[in-house]
């Protein structure tokens, strides 16, 4: 079965640079979520989109923005990167949003130097 | 915001022993989900519990939701090396506004370490 696709899988950036992470949900899934997971930590919810509209907002820094496109893929844009942004970034997708099972992608490992 | 406390943080067991992790909330939960994350992997959905007192089984895994819907547990019988990983409970907001998609709030997780 098709899974959530994330790209790139690994990314190295310098401080103050920008980064764009991409997420392609499972086919027919209309909802995407973004999570950040630091080393040894639990995933922290950042933001979600349902039918291309922002649905819920978590602990997403103002330096980050995201959107969901007409084909339901999503991009997380990160600017003015800081050392503390180094983490695993997971995208998850679900069908019909609220209460639905979230299927996580393999993640993008971001290292900020 | 919605919070859930998960214990223990780490659990060392001998292969073949049982394992249990617990999640507790101070407020009534609409549902609770359980995820497993292998080292270097991504969270994988295990199960969702919705009903008060619900008990669900998946082979050697038993999931329970408390009568008051404020606590839940995951019990693994006769652990195997393939059970190694971190087990997270996760919850969504209580208020359901209809439509949309609330993010999950995860417990801190229980790291299961198995000694052969």
Secondary structure layout plus pairing:
The complex is a heterodimer of chains A (113) and B (116).
Chain A: E1 5-7, E2 10-13, E3 19-24, E4 31-37, E5 44-50, E6 53-57, E7 64-68, E8 74-78, E9 87-94, E10 103-104, E11 108-112
Parallel strand pairs in A: 2-11
Antiparallel strand pairs in A: 1-3, 3-8, 4-5, 4-9, 5-6, 7-8, 9-10, 9-11
Chain B: E1 5-7, E2 10-14, E3 19-24, E4 32-37, E5 44-49, E6 55-58, E7 61-65, E8 71-76, E9 85-91, E10 105-106, E11 110-115
Parallel strand pairs in B: 2-11
Antiparallel strand pairs in B: 1-3, 3-8, 4-5, 4-9, 6-7, 7-8, 9-10, 9-11
Task: Describe the overall structure.
The complex is a heterodimer of chains A (113) and B (116). With 113 residues, chain A is mainly β. Helices cover 0% and strands 50% of the residues of chain A. The N and C termini of chain A lie far apart (36 Å). The model of chain A has no long low-confidence stretch (mean pLDDT 94). By secondary structure, chain B is mainly β. Chain B contains no helices and eleven strands. In chain B, the strands form two sheets. In chain B, strands 2, 4, 5, 9, 10 and 11 form a six-stranded mixed sheet that branches. Chain B has a five-stranded antiparallel sheet with strand order 1-3-8-7-6, with no helix packed on it. The termini of chain B are far apart. Chains A and B meet through strand 4, strand 5, strand 9 and strand 10 of A and strand 5 and strand 10 of B.
